[in-house]
Amino acid sequence: LSILLSLLVPAHTTRSPDCGGILTPSGLRYRKSRPTPPTPAAGRGRKSVLRQDLMAPPAPEPSPISPSSKNQITSVKVDKFSLTLIPDTGMRLSIEVDLGITSAPSTTKEMRLSILADLHVEMNPEGNLELVTFDCKPTLEEVQSTEEMDRSAPHKSSGSDVDKQINVEKICLEVSKLLLFPNERLMSLAAPFPITPSCQVQYQPLASPMYSEQGIIISLQTTFQVAGTVIPLPVSPVPFSMPEPASSSPSHLILAFSEHFYTSLFSALEESGALNVSLLSSLTTATLAERITQMGSLFQEDLPVVLQAVTRSSPHVVLEEDKAIVKLFLTAQIGAGASLFQSFLSVNVDVTARLHLSVADTRMIISVAAIEDIELSLATSDVGPVLAALLEELFLPTIREEVPAQINVVLRQGVFLPHIASFTYTDVNITIHKDYVLIPCNLQLEARTG
Question: Which residues form the signal peptide (predicted)?
Answer without folding.
Answer: none
